[in-house]
Inverse folding.
């Protein structure tokens, strides 16, 4: 573009004009970077090595129709599921498994490290899928079968039921003797209150239950003997608070031994801030004394 006089250039801006306005900002950025570098920033991280002596725990849960008895809110089964799931969530290093029993017994979940899987199994437990009855001995024997080959130094069965052993080919005391020989502790929990409560009487064709008022009670001596033979303990849970306390006590009795080694390492970051500041300062000087230089005429 050619012009005949200098006044014609007034108001015309090029990239040099815009770039020159940013030079002061570059200097401020250099100053900020130097201040940050003087604060000596560091990146810190640590390695945590956990050595745990895990416990193998099998839960043996009664799923007979009487577990729907409504002396707990809403019923024994629901409260038992909730407490078991909470107990599992507090055992991060242990292997856990699940056996259910009624008139028979079967393994719902073998020993596993995956807490989410076993919690899902417990959450989805339903009453009425096995034949009626309470085969305590069969439930305990099935749980022992999963622990007998375990290499863990501590092996435990938590057996929960609300009834007396009335079916099955294995008596609970026979199963307790096997547990003692295998060095497996059995904690037995008798769940349910005494007195008149709403309890299932029979099951309709559609799978629902008819409830009637019944005078509920059961002999706790058998469960106490099973626990005593194996070196465990017997507990009686008459309320949801009792059951929560029982799980907490078992958790304290059967603690997982954990040793932790923490290695802390840090790396200095101030060098990077100084490097960036130096590069920006050199760039600013080259521009100021080069293409952005101001010439006064």
């Amino acid at each position: 573009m050619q012009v005949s006089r200098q006044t014609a250039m007034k108001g015309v801006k090029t990239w040099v004009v815009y770039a020159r306005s940013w030079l002061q900002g570059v200097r401020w950025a250099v100053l900020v970077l130097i201040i940050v570098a003087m604060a000596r920033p560091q990146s810190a991280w640590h390695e945590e090595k956990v050595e745990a002596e895990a416990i193998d725990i099998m839960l043996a849960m009664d799923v007979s129709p009487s577990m729907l008895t409504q002396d707990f809110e809403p019923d024994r089964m629901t409260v038992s599921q909730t407490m078991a799931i909470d107990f599992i969530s507090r055992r991060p290093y242990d292997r856990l498994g699940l056996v259910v029993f009624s008139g028979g017994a079967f393994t719902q979940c073998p020993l596993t490290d995956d807490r989410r899987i076993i919690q899902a199994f417990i959450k989805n437990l339903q009453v009425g899928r096995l034949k009626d009855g309470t085969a305590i001995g069969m439930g305990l024997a099935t749980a022992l079968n999963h622990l007998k080959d375990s290499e863990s130094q501590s092996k435990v069965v938590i057996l929960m039921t609300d009834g007396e052993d009335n079916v099955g080919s294995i008596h609970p005391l026979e199963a307790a003797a096997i547990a003692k020989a295998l060095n497996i502790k059995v904690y037995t929990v008798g769940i349910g209150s005494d007195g008149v409560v709403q309890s299932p009487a029979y099951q309709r064709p559609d799978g629902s239950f008819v409830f009637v008022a019944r005078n509920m009670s059961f002999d706790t001596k058998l469960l106490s003997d099973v626990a005593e033979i194996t070196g465990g303990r017997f507990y009686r849970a008459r309320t949801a608070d009792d059951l929560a306390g029982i799980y907490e006590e078992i958790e304290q009795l059967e603690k997982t031994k954990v040793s932790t080694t923490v290695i802390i390492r840090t790396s200095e970051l101030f060098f990077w801030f100084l490097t960036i500041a130096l590069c920006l300062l050199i760039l600013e000087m080259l521009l100021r004394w080069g293409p952005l230089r101001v010439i006064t005429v």
